[in-house]
Design goal:
transferase; 262 residues; Rossmann fold; P-loop_NTPase; nucleotidyltransferase; NAD_biosynth-regulator; five-stranded parallel sheet
């Protein structure tokens, strides 16, 4: 089927949430294809929380991997002049992303009136039809700013792919027969049945991830906290912890605080 209508929806998506998703699906319903443009620059609001533009682009590609008619593109603004001087360069870069599309009707969905004026003033005089529409903000019950300030409070509003960034990863490590597996299981169940596993990816992508996961007997630089159960193997474990750059994140548990796995 010929795809005549293209909807272009852009934003910083730091993070991407349910309100964004609803608007994109509405855009998809009104068009044959959607181009989802994630924009940003070095040290932007996403970058400041450890979500740089490249990471947001990767996550959005993953989020829409099974949507053939929703494509994701990245618009890096790092080297562009600041607004309002940067409108021409920004528009040129945006339109460069449209070259591969043959659509004759292109609609830009924007959230600010300024974009309506600036985009409309720069549309090329060619055979295509261009228009700008204000996105209906009533769909968005939460803001990315609110999520950044308190991600756990707004956990269910965050897109599942982006949740991994805000997940607190707790590692439990100890020697043989130290009780670590029992402790992991009981801690996880005490924290609203949080996921627990030996592999981080398995835990953070679990449907039960509500912002905290527990990892059994595995170390990773991504961990936020490491609980060390004392054992005869402490020297070797502390060496591994140091190699992962986790020394400052270790809490050493006293024997009385652990339940041994007999």
């Amino acid at each position: 089927m010929e795809k005549k209508r293209l909807g272009v929806y852009f934003g910083t998506f730091a993070p991407f949430h349910k309100g964004h998703q609803q608007q994109i699906y509405k855009c998809a319903a009104l068009n044959d294809q959607v181009l989802l443009v994630v924009s940003g620059y070095t040290n932007d609001r996403g970058d400041k929380i450890g979500l740089p533009l490249s990471q947001r682009y990767q996550y959005l590609q993953e989020a829409f991997a099974d949507e053939a008619d929703i494509n994701v593109a990245m618009l890096d603004e790092t080297d562009l002049p600041p607004m309002p001087q940067g409108w021409d360069a920004w528009f040129t870069r945006l339109f460069g992303l449209l070259k591969k599309y043959q659509s004759q009707e292109i609609t830009f969905y924007v959230g600010e009136p300024e974009y309506v004026t600036e985009l409309g003033a720069r549309f090329p005089q060619d055979t295509r039809t261009y228009k700008v529409e204000m996105a209906d903000r009533q769909d968005i019950k939460i803001s990315a700013t609110e999520i950044r300030e308190n991600p756990l409070l707004h956990w269910n509003e965050i897109n599942p792919v982006f949740r991994r960034h805000f997940t607190k990863i707790i590692g439990i490590i100890g020697g043989r027969k130290s009780g670590k597996s029992t402790l992991v299981r009981r801690l996880a169940r005490s924290f609203n049945n949080a996921p627990f596993a030996e592999k981080i990816e398995q835990a953070i992508t679990s449907a039960g991830n509500q912002g905290i996961v527990f990892i059994d007997n595995t170390l990773s630089p991504d961990m936020d906290l490491v609980l060390l159960i004392p054992s005869d193997n402490d020297a070797a474990l502390l060496k591994k912890i140091a190699e992962q750059g986790l020394t400052e994140k270790v809490v050493r548990l006293d024997d009385e605080e652990t339940i041994r796995d007999m």
